[in-house]
Amino acid sequence: MCVFVQKAAVDRVLSAFRSICGEDCVSLGEAVREQHGKDESVHKCRPPDVVVFPRCVEEVSSLAKVCHDHNLPIIPFGTGTGLEGGVGAVKGGVCFSLRNMEQILDLHQEDFDVTVEPGVTRKTLNAYLRDTGLWFPVDPGADASLCGMAATSASGTNAVRYGTMRENVMNLEVVLSNGTVIHTAGKGRRPRKTSAGYNLTNLFVGSEGTLGIITKTTLRLYGIPESMVSAVCSFPSVQAAVDSTVQILQAGVPVARIEFLDDVMIDACNKFSSLSYPVTPTLFLEFHGSERSLEEQVATAEEITQSNEGSDFQWAQDAETRNRLWKARHDAWYAAQALRPGCKAYSTDVCVPLSRLPQIIVETKKDLLESRLTGPIAGHVGDGNFHCLMVVDPNDPDELHRVHLFTERLAR
Amino acid sequence: MCVFVQKAAVDRVLSAFRSICGEDCVSLGEAVREQHGKDESVHKCRPPDVVVFPRCVEEVSSLAKVCHDHNLPIIPFGTGTGLEGGVGAVKGGVCFSLRNMEQILDLHQEDFDVTVEPGVTRKTLNAYLRDTGLWFPVDPGADASLCGMAATSASGTNAVRYGTMRENVMNLEVVLSNGTVIHTAGKGRRPRKTSAGYNLTNLFVGSEGTLGIITKTTLRLYGIPESMVSAVCSFPSVQAAVDSTVQILQAGVPVARIEFLDDVMIDACNKFSSLSYPVTPTLFLEFHGSERSLEEQVATAEEITQSNEGSDFQWAQDAETRNRLWKARHDAWYAAQALRPGCKAYSTDVCVPLSRLPQIIVETKKDLLESRLTGPIAGHVGDGNFHCLMVVDPNDPDELHRVHLFTERLAR
């Protein structure tokens, strides 16, 4: 292990690990280490020196204490579905794979909250909730661990209506680097709001594992809407699509999702997901509510899109068609990658005020063209947030350099 | 000044203050100091040693630096409308009264955001926004400074629909104790959401001035709803009123306000605001939306309240009647006080999971009775939050002792 100086120390640490969580829960195998050194991004695999699989918060705490005493880096690992290389062990160290902690605890149906361990994913929780009439709407696409979503402040297509993790985490149990266990909102508490003390919960949400290991997350739940309907609308220009978004939000339509796909992105999705939408700037929309409120939401939204020369809405009312549509949106990452087989995708994440969005997307597309780069654009436009999915040949240094220059310009 | 050791140091500090913001903006007068040592609560006045009135962030920064160099406590002061004694200079020091910084900056109508200085109150901002079709809904009752509301993580009757300050502050300019000026989300930035870096904005929201002086707040705005309607509904029991609240929220009715008043509270409001509602547990409700969605919201809510033996809704549809109703709710504090002339009100603030609310309110009322205390109860029940407004004779030590014991039990 690169981070240890002496063989004796290595043995001491490993034996401490084994005595805490048993032989089976400590792995030095190359395959296991490789698997825990990367996520779904283009970032290079940076395997940890050892992977541990604790089964409860007490084990996490004891393991952390050993790491702390030996000055070893700790890297928490959920599902590895991240897109930003956050799990890479850049200085070696110990990966805490939390998949064995997979309990769903303390579901309070009347209070709309639940507590989950790090091994519980978004889809597992929603399957568990199915008969309760409740759901957890934050949906970053991948079937990520909910504690990982808290650690990375995950967002997604529903954020315009339900908020991001920031608005939906009520409490966290966290193991600090020295093994101390804290509850950010107080032990066993699940306040809807609070102004007592510093807001530690939201300091840990988005801290990407740098402040501690999240071992439990208490989440806010929502009632499943009576009806949902999705629609697709094509536009003659980026401006027309984004203007429609701004006007729909200004009109107070409580739209649940509103996603922009540029011509390159919709083309990729058509090919990857066997769809046949016109290859022009496009909005995917979804409305949640009662039958009656849906009618009204849709009527207002359609009036606005048509005044911006949008096409008629193409409907997806039944669950299957809706799921197919949103799966296509969620698969945008793979669809982009499939545009150039053998290449890797690399996502940028830009959030700007809504009013500046059309101009920035138009400029970005121009820049991509001039830089000879493939970069379909998709965005949670309701929040002014868009992703440019760079599809890059990792073996072409000149192209990598152009990507680097492009992303630097974009960040500015 | 108690905090200074030497006369020479006092003179040096005062002369530094005067050279920064001018003779007129530094006050040692007793009346001014008294006025800045208390808020609207029962907490004893704790006057600062000196009050300064900076006019811009540069002056705040320079003044803070002087305080830092001389190890003097700094107490930021907005409007003094707090109810928890947060402005008291418990160890003396320098009060920064920020009322001279009263600019409204950077209104971005298309992006639904605006930036305000600490002298701008909630009502001033909404008056300024009147012609734009936008408003800022967080409403703690008093006409508080918006930066003060950020500092205290203010909430209010609208929180169930629009959230608290926590969800509606996008960026803060803060002067740290040593004079350093920071922007919690980056200078000039106003992201709808972000997962880049630690969430400093929400660390400062609710920090009560302990981490720095907020000199600018960037706020999220909302479209003014097409219609609003308020209703009052009386119930045979606390349980029936709270059950109705839970069921209305579970049914997904996007209620804008839902406020509980117990029999003692509604009696006080009737007397203070010349109303004539039945003296039983009561809900004040408000619905926002389009004409059509209102009809539906109201129909669902009324069906639920009637199934819980609530009375027919008493309507307040026109702006004047609505304002009268909510003014009565906002004046609950004074109404409680008026129950016992010569006494002071003292508010407790408790937030519990919704499912536990009826039991806790019933127990609290029983405890009040047994302790021979006057404590009308009002609550933002949509969040499980309620206030027991203790009306206390400050000259009766035995009563003060009973209040102390009661609040200790309540906090548990």
TrEMBL record, chains A, B:
This is D-lactate dehydrogenase (cytochrome). The keyword Flavoprotein applies. It is found in: Mitochondrion. Its EC number is 1.1.2.4. Keywords: FAD, Flavoprotein, Mitochondrion, Oxidoreductase, Transit peptide. Residues 43-224 form the FAD-binding PCMH-type domain. Its main location: mitochondrion. Transmembrane segments: none annotated. InterPro entries: FAD-bd_oxidored_4_C (IPR004113), FAD-bd_PCMH (IPR016166), FAD-bd_PCMH-like_sf (IPR036318), FAD-bd_PCMH_sub2 (IPR016169), FAD-linked_Oxase-like_C (IPR016164), Oxid_FAD_bind_N (IPR006094). Belongs to the FAD-binding oxidoreductase/transferase type 4 family. It holds the Pfam family FAD_binding_4. Its cofactor is FAD.
